Amino acid sequence: MKLLYLGTAAAEGIPAVFCTCPVCQAARKLKGKNIRTRSQALLDGTILFDFPPDSYAHYIAGGFSQFDLPAIRHLFITHSHMDHFYPDELQLRRPVFVASSPVETLHIYGNRAVEKALLRLQEEEQAVPCNDFCYAKPFEPIEADAYRITPLSALHDRKEECLFYAAENGGKALLYAHDTGIFPDPVWDYFSGTKIRFNMVSLDCTAILHKDGGNHMGIPDTIEVRKRLIDLGAADKNTVFVLNHFSHNGGLNHDDLVRVAEKEGFTVAYDGLEIEA
Ligand SMILES: [Zn+2]
Ligand SMILES: [Zn+2]
Ligand SMILES: [Zn+2]
Questions:
Q1: Rounded to an integer, what is the distance from CA 131 to the centroid of its chain?
Q2: pLDDT, the chain, mean
Q3: pTM value?
Q4: Which helix (H) or strand (E) holds 132?
């Protein structure tokens, strides 16, 4: 399985849209891996996780070789926060904006808040933008081409049913877990019940050095989650653990973050990183 990180920041990006704190100023000066757009990732060129306002920028930035946005058929949304789901862009799937019509169906999987946003869009635009919504029920696997994707319950915004996803294909398994604190008990029960073993685990690290655990995670929380995954047998010494979804409020630029994370055995995601596991 190959995971391509298209964006690796929290909601405000780095540099943050309207911020000139030391981290944002340093990012502006240093550029490169210090520049982080809003989180989105692509599995094997096929399964797209989240649809932030930077999706179009991700599409054109990659030179079209790895991320073929018009060809994507399966979009898994974690929750309705703007940095993970920017539905207004999807109205550009209406035939009037797509000269190569007919537009093929885009299967969008998500919670009820995502469905509501799509319905609002359809009402306002008085047109169905060729999207096929599927409610992603926690712990009920979804078949998408050759992939088995299981929505898992996140500990995040209590006003909606936030999700993260486990993806399996050809005997390999990936966990993409962003915008979540320490996983809730039903997730641990699911892991021990299914005996799933992940080749790669991508963990939320919004708070970077700080402990959070309630809505997001920082490195102390990711250490705890990794230990619990290994203790359960859901991960082992060969599992690649990646930290992702960073905020400038965490206080570190890329190189400083790598120094801290590497000591703990974590890989640090950056925009454009591709990992095969
Ligand atoms: Zn987020
Ligand atoms: Zn800042
Ligand atoms: Zn969120």
A1: 20
A2: 96
A3: 0.97
A4: strand 131-135
